[in-house]
């Protein structure tokens, strides 16, 4: 799994004179069934969230309010996305380190996840993450 497997996802948007509505159906608009939803809010100006990788977890990250910046890192390449539209999410595959920062005051970062919360699925140390990326590459070769 690499950065090329992650991308922006255009979500359905139903807009009329009353406003707009977007929706996300598991295994339809995203390539996984949704087991968990969580959201970040009241994030302080200078705070960086994320700063971890996941072994198996797949996620869709949606800026339901405000904006923020996400940098994805697969251990070889990095790519930064500005998320600022509630109808566009970012799909993040397993084995990606992510840093989320530059939250606007009104930002709400909604995350749809393919698995229940499990601390065992995390890489919270960057060097450990890089070791795992290299070990996986050696297995594939
Ligand atoms: P953390 O992973 O540090 O948040 P972020 O990735 O946004 O920087 O999570 C903060 C705390 O919340 C940590 O103690 C783990 C806990 N947590 C849960 O209990 N369940 C969850 O689904 C998530 C995402 C976190």
Going across the major beta sheet, what is the strand order? Answer: 1-9-6-11-4
Mean pLDDT: 96
State the helix count: 1
Query: Which structural class do the helices and strands define?
Result: mainly beta
Largest sheet: 5 strands, antiparallel
* Cα radius of gyration in angstroms: 15 Å
CATH class: Mainly Beta
The CATH superfamily bears the name Jelly Rolls
Polypeptide structure, described:
By secondary structure, the protein is mainly beta. It has a single domain, classed as Jelly Rolls. Helix content is 11%, strand content 43%. It contains one helix and twelve strands, in the order E-E-E-E-E-E-E-E-E-E-E-E-H. The chain has one helix at residues 126-140; strands spanning 7-10, 13-16, 19-22, 36-40, 49-54, 59-65, 68-73, 78-83, 88-92, 97-101, 108-113, 122-123. It has a five-stranded antiparallel beta sheet with strand order 1-9-6-11-4, with no helix packed on it. A five-stranded antiparallel beta sheet has the order 8-7-10-5-12. Strands 2-3 form a two-stranded antiparallel sheet. Strand 7 (68-73) and strand 8 form a beta hairpin. The protein is globular and about 55 Å long. The model has no long low-confidence stretch (mean pLDDT 96). The chain binds thymidine-5'-diphosphate. Thymidine-5'-diphosphate binds next to strand 4 and strand 5. Thymidine-5'-diphosphate is lined by residues 36, 38, 40, 49-50, 52, 117.
């Amino acid at each position: 799994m690499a950065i090329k497997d992650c991308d922006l996802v255009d979500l359905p948007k139903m807009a009329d004179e009353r406003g707009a509505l977007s929706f996300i159906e598991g295994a339809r608009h995203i390539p996984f069934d949704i087991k968990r939803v969580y959201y970040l809010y009241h994030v302080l100006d200078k705070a960086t969230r994320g700063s971890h990788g996941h072994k198996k977890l797949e996620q869709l990250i949606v800026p339901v309010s405000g904006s923020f910046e996400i940098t994805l890192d697969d251990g070889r390449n990095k790519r930064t996305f500005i998320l600022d539209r509630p109808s566009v999410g970012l799909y993040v595959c397993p084995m990606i380190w992510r840093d989320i920062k530059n939250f606007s005051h009104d930002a709400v970062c909604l995350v749809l996840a393919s698995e229940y919360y499990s601390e065992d699925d995390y890489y919270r140390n960057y060097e450990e993450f890089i070791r795992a990326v290299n070990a996986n590459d050696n297995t594939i070769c």
